[in-house]
């Protein structure tokens, strides 16, 4: 190759080099196409289990405002008919940061038919994060540079959900948002007891600005995801619009201790049990269901804990929750078999990945002195078994 470039001056050699380069490119391309085909047919990740047995609510009293027929309500909203009741839970926050164009894709559906059936699956990953978890966001961004992920890039978008922090100036987030353009942020205070606002913000944003997505993986910023398994799982489903899977919890009592951050007064929620729900740490949901949720959110009384709020909404809409080991809360030991799992294998993994990402990009030196490797202190305390603590400021 070197002699080739040295000789570029004479046109005959130039021509020869051109031919040689073209041949090389053709060979590489052929290999690439074969490799891709091969990967799609053969290198399916270790079989993730199918949607597991469907579980239904036990006959507890889950009555909760508004007590109206939600099927009728939804039908009215979907048909653009006037609704006879007033909303009781209007989401009244405004965007501080909104990457509106993130999901704008040239709709080349035929190019997406990787699954053989021509279903153009498109995944949106919504990640609840908090201001201080910059290192976790960077780890996730870095993961998208990996080979394993690149293959799916065109059909995946990742967005971080944040609230507002009064205390420190919000400019750090503004800068991060400028650089990466992947932060959705509204002007509610970023606290644990405001998580429902964050979740509702995520749903509203997804259905409005990313409706091209067919499915949403909703998770905390300390969860790993396995995108290949998402698509593999979807290919196995008969009805991909009913996909709503997670770590199923039922007969969970409200926490009545007034010093707990999960505290629920009897006014908040009067019954001994919540309807079944998926812990907010991670779950996977179809856009079809997400759209139904968004439409009825304003008619369900606000409750501070987001996963129980969604459980109530799902119950009112009679949406079935599918229990699934694909959403693993017990660690990432079986990474090849899951869609999402909590926790990093070890602390070193997070740190080295993140550092490498920063260095590779070299972006920080020029654009923002704030994000320097040296500055970025690592906080292992946020990594293991504390996902509930992650989103408080
Ligand atoms: C369910 O609880 C509500 C209070 O929220 C109460 O008014 C209603 O009578 C209860 N229903 C039954 C069947 O116990
Ligand atoms: C939630 O956010 C609102 C708006 O910023 C704020 O007024 C309220 O205090 C927050 N609530 C909690 C519990 O942090
Ligand atoms: C919290 O509950 C304890 C008893 O369980 C009670 O003594 C205390 O006054 C309560 N605190 C508040 C702020 O309601
Ligand atoms: C709720 O869903 C289940 C299963 O999808 C169905 O059998 C049942 O009839 C539904 N109930 C109502 C009230 O729509
Ligand atoms: C990994 O899979 C094995 C075998 O199915 C299981 O026993 C183990 O609990 C799994 N580990 C985690 C962290 O889920
Ligand atoms: C906000 O400021 C108060 C007092 O100035 C301080 O105690 C608190 O730690 C700050 N909160 C955060 C999240 O930095």
TrEMBL record:
Keywords for the protein's UniProt record, in alphabetical order = Glycoprotein, Glycosyltransferase, Golgi apparatus, Membrane, Signal-anchor, Transferase, Transmembrane, Transmembrane helix
Q: Which GO terms describe its cellular component?
A: Golgi membrane
Reported EC number(s) for this entry are 2.4.1.-
Compartments where located? Golgi apparatus membrane
Keyword check for Transmembrane, yes or no. yes
Q: Which GO terms describe its molecular function?
A: hexosyltransferase activity; UDP-glycosyltransferase activity
Question: Is this entry keyworded Nucleus?
Answer: no
**Which positions, given as ranges, span the membrane?**
14-35
Entry similarity comment: Belongs to the glycosyltransferase 31 family.
Q: Which PANTHER family match?
A: BETA-1,3-GALACTOSYLTRANSFERASE BRN, BETA-1,3-N-ACETYLGLUCOSAMINYLTRANSFERASE
- This one is known as Hexosyltransferase
């Amino acid at each position: 190759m070197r002699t080739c470039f040295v000789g570029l001056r004479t046109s005959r050699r130039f021509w020869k080099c051109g031919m040689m380069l073209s041949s090389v490119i053709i060979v590489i391309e052929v290999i690439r196409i074969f490799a891709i085909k091969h990967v799609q047919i053969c290198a399916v990740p270790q079989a993730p289990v199918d949607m597991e047995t469907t579980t239904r609510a036990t006959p507890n009293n889950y009555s909760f405002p508004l007590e109206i027929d939600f099927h009728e309500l939804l039908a009215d909203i979907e048909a653009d008919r006037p609704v006879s009741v007033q909303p009781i839970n209007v989401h009244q926050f405004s965007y501080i940061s909104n990457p509106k164009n993130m999901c704008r894709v040239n709709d080349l559906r035929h190019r997406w038919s990787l699954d053989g059936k021509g279903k153009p699956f498109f995944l949106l990953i919504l990640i609840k994060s908090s201001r201080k978890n910059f290192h976790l966001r960077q780890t996730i961004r870095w993961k998208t540079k990996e080979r394993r992920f690149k293959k799916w890039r065109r059909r995946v978008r990742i967005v971080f959900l944040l609230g507002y922090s009064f205390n420190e100036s919000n400019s750090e987030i503004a800068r991060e948002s400028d650089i990466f353009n992947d932060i959705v942020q509204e002007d509610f205070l970023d606290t644990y007891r405001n998580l429902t606002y964050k979740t509702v913000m995520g749903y509203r944003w997804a259905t409005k600005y990313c409706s091209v997505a067919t499915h949403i993986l909703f998770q905390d910023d300390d969860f790993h995801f396995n995108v290949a398994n998402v698509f593999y799982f979807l290919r196995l489903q008969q009805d991909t619009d009913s996909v709503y899977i997670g770590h199923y919890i039922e007969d969970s009592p409200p926490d009545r201790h007034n010093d707990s951050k999960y505290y629920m007064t009897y006014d908040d929620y009067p019954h001994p049990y919540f309807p079944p729900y998926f812990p907010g740490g991670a779950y996977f949901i179809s856009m079809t269901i997400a759209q139904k949720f968004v439409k009825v959110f304003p008619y369900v009384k606000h409750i501070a804990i987001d996963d129980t709020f969604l459980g109530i909404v799902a119950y009112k809409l009679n949406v079935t929750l599918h229990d699934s080991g694909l959403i693993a809360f017990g660690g990432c030991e079986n990474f090849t078999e899951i869609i999402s799992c909590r926790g990093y294998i070890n602390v070193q993994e997070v740190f080295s990945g993140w550092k490498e990402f920063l260095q590779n990009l070299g972006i920080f030196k020029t654009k923002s002195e704030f994000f320097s490797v040296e500055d970025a202190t690592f906080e292992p305390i946020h990594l293991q078994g504390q996902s509930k603590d992650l989103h408080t400021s």
